[in-house]
Fold each of these.
Amino acid sequence: MAQSVVKWSGVYSKKTDEVILTATIEKNWHLYSQYISPNAGPVATKITFLKNKKVKIKGKPLEENVHAFYDENFMAHLSVFDDKAIFRQKIKVKKSTDLKLVITYMVCDDSRCLPPTDETLTIKIEK
């Protein structure tokens, strides 16, 4: 079900040396930030890049389109994405390769949450 609520895509920008991940989120649903308290209730989004000797991951992904709101379900102020989430990960490319990553995420609407889901993406990296 979560797969039908969120559609993920990823591209490599040679110009900025970063992987750009985009989540398109169905209306009335929200996706949680990477940076929420583990005690808040929902599962934070986690992006895991699989080991690849041809690419060095630099720092943590930056988020765009995130906003805070009070979530009645969890009775907490949380950072979420509505409609679209963008994550930018700086990388250093040593050689062209396919970069694999796993995104663990959870989505909720005003009345229910779906179980955490893992989405696997492969991004073509051109040196």
Amino acid sequence: MKIQWTSKASSDLVRLHQHLSPVAPEAAARVVRQLANAPGRLLDYPRIGDKLEAYEPREVRRIIVGDYEIRYEIANATIFILRLWHCRENRSFYSET
């Protein structure tokens, strides 16, 4: 398997960093690093995340990393990182994929 970040997920990382860095630049960098590295564990355990039934027949799952949710899809031999959110964010504002 391989991991592929969608453009929306990459933009989410940038957005989160821009939101946090004015207040706490070191914490912003640490959080972004943690979120960027978290999907690596999916290579060994791709189905560790909770399955989101609403997306069937697609296999969309989520993992929680600290206060953040990472949504991903398993398709063939690829894990697509779809979106990243802070758990307190209003997710209905953003489209999923």
Amino acid sequence: MTAHATAGWSDEAGVLVLPSGRRVRGSGARRQASATPTLAVFVLDHEPPVTVWEQLWLPWLDFGLPLNPILAIDTLRSVHERLTCDRVEVSCAAGRGRTGCALSVLAIIDGIEPTHAVAYVRSHYRSDAVETAEQEQWLAGLVL
């Protein structure tokens, strides 16, 4: 582990602090951030841009749900574990809908009740996170 990896995110814009204290940065894929992640999780409906840091791609429809919900949840479980030592960034195109959904799944994994996850992410990340009723219903019904 490098010092960069163990430093975690500061309180910069877009950083969601989960109840456990783990930090994850949400972002739009086109946004230029001040610090680079050690792991980028792209939640996009197309292959992500090439990065010099490690990346994962979760195929996820714009204004919709992951194409493979089981794979998405399993991957986000692994990502949650990495939040203790890596600088993880979750990105969709704009950093709202799909990013908000993925952050909500991470919040649920971290112990937030599924019916409260969207409100938690909207309160601690972006007020416009999670864009559709379908996304909200999917998250509220998750059993992990």
